Amino acid sequence: MNKELSLAQIKEAVDEAYKEFKGNTDGKNADYIPYLANIDSHLFGIAVCLPSGEVVEAGDTDYRFGIESVSKVHTAILALRQYGADKVLEMIGADATGLPFNSIIAILLENDHPSTPLVNAGAIAACSMVQPVGDPVLKWKAIVDNITELCGSAPQLIDELYKSESDTNFNNRSIAWLLKNFNRIYDEPNLALDLYTRQCSLGVTAKQLAISAATIACGGTNPVTKKYVFPSEISPRITSMIAAVGFYEHTGDWMYTSGIPAKTGVGGGVMGVMPGKFGIAAFAPPIDEAGNSVKAQLAIKFIMNKLQQNIFG
Ligand code: GLN
């Protein structure tokens, strides 16, 4: 396991995975948000970014899709940058909830225990922490700037998605106010909720996500822009959070079968971090019952297996 990798091997594995799963028609687009239901379900892209900054790509890697829950990783990094690892642990936590991404019960069960910035409750809490507290314009700028640095290029807000999400985010509104009830939100709840909804509505490409995963894998320096983004001690912290809860209540199965910490989003994106080796992202809109892209999961597992890589050695 964990062989040294050549660019040619990675290209071969990515191309094979693309060919193997391109025709797969399992799953269906997320339908709880109208915008997502209408995206071309045939879109499929895979990108791998190496520490050298080289990016291996197959398929629709330049198509901008809704980042959705993958953005929780980026804003967790921002909270870690602004507050440090101990404060984030104290104010949000780093535990798996074992429950779906938007669980209300998890908040009730864990109101005085740690949660994680990688489920909705913790992600909304992370948005509330973003500095400067109380200033929606500068907070939003901090969120977008952070994602831009991680991806090496700017994301773009998908207005229609933002409108769709804002009109239907009743569950998340409840989460924001329940957090307020337990003193686990650190800015005005509606403000934090709106920032969370907006960050989920950012359009990114599979290539951008692969680069941001590679920035994590490379200890906080973006391998493409060569720019320092965050202190290296944040990398193992955020990767451990992804490993613990990146697939929500299915994270154990995912880690067991794939061997790579990865974060999903209902927009069809999955982003995986292989520390020191590479960042990988795959995108395809049809998702399974748990809200995870069917083809993206298959492609990443195939590539990990083909390259004989596994974080557990
Ligand atoms: N915006 C979505 C929500 O909070 C993101 C969900 C997801 O990608 N799992 O409901």
How would you describe this structure to a colleague?
This protein is α+β, with helices and mostly antiparallel strands and 313 residues long. The protein has a domain at 69-200: 3-Layer(aba) Sandwich (Beta-lactamase), CATH 3.40.710.10. It has 14 helices and 8 strands. The protein has helices at residues 7-21, 34-37, 71-83, 85-91, 105-109, 120-129, 136-151, 159-168, 170-181, 189-200, 206-217, 234-245, 251-258, 294-306, and strands at 45-49, 55-59, 65-66, 156-157, 202-204, 262-264, 269-274, 278-283. It has a 5-stranded antiparallel β-sheet. A 3-stranded antiparallel β-sheet has the order 3-5-4. The chain is globular. The model has no long low-confidence stretch (mean pLDDT 95). The structure holds glutamine. Glutamine (GLN) is lined by residues 68-69, 101-102, 120, 165, 172, 200, 265-266, 291.
Quick structural summary:
The chain has helices at 7-21, 34-37, 71-83, 85-91, 105-109, 120-129, 136-151, 159-168, 170-181, 189-200, 206-217, 234-245, 251-258, 294-306; strands spanning 45-49, 55-59, 65-66, 156-157, 202-204, 262-264, 269-274, 278-283.
